[in-house]
Amino acid sequence: MRHFLTLLSHETRMLLVSPATYVAATLFLAFMGLIFTKILEIYSGTPQELSPANVYFQLFWLPACVMVPLLTMKCIAEERRLGTIETLLTTPVTTTEVVLAKFGAAYFLYSALWGSTVGFFYILRKFSGDARFLDSGPLLGGFLFIAVSGLFFVAIGVFASSVTSNQSVAGILGCVMLATLILGGNALSDSAWLEQGVLKPAKSVIEYAHVFGHRDDFTRGVIDTRHLLFYLSGTALALIFSILSVEAKLLHS
Q1: Is this structure's pTM higher than 0.85?
Q2: Which residue range forms the structural domain that includes residue 56?
Q3: What are phi and psi of 134, to 5 degrees?
Q4: Max Cα separation, the chain?
Q5: How many domains does the chain have?
Q6: pLDDT tens across 133-186, in order?
Q7: What is the distance between the alpha carbons of residues 102 and 227, in angstroms, rounded to a whole number?
Q8: pLDDT for 196-242, tens place per residue?
Q9: Cβ atoms 218, 227 nearer than 8 A
Q10: CA nearest 53: which of 141, 131, 129?
């Protein structure tokens, strides 16, 4: 892994000059700003049981399903289309280093964009003068959930980019895979037909992978090691499949 930091620096610079990065950042900050404004309107009208941080993280799935594909769709697909991935791998670097560098750069920007929204809560605390609006438990738990789940989400985006040479296809595939994981699991977890005898094991698996349930636990301050294992193992598997996909394409080229 001697060349990893050099590759990571290069991939981060490439993302910073990519128009897709700024499209993702603009859409994300605009959307989250609107969400936060709506939360303030609700809380200024009637008292609420949940803290603003709890409500804020409920729509995490929408920016994740849009922003992650925009950040990752070019990372491998575009290099394969241009033929530069083969040239890169003729240098003294490994496929693992290349994939991990692309993953690390995308995850860094994903985390940085979410981290920038801490400013919303700082503004709320500064101008409201009420510390009750800034409940540190749900706020820290929510951002920890974003950081941990983001590992898996970005890895899925990298995998989607590794299986095609068309960045548009990679973006759509990444969005579909993330939506299936997040929204599909949420829909199936409430399905009564999964309670039937032979389907109960499947029900247990779906509940284990229930992303919305993980978010609720994190924002309540419950850090379950099973959730951490789910995201870390999922990240590792997605990256391994990405590496194998790149190597398989090279063998057949």
Answers
A1: yes
A2: 4-251
A3: -115, 75
A4: 63
A5: 1
A6: 667 788 889 999 999 999 999 999 999 999 998 999 999 999 999 999 998 877
A7: 25
A8: 666 666 777 777 888 988 998 998 888 889 999 999 999 999 999 99
A9: yes
A10: 141
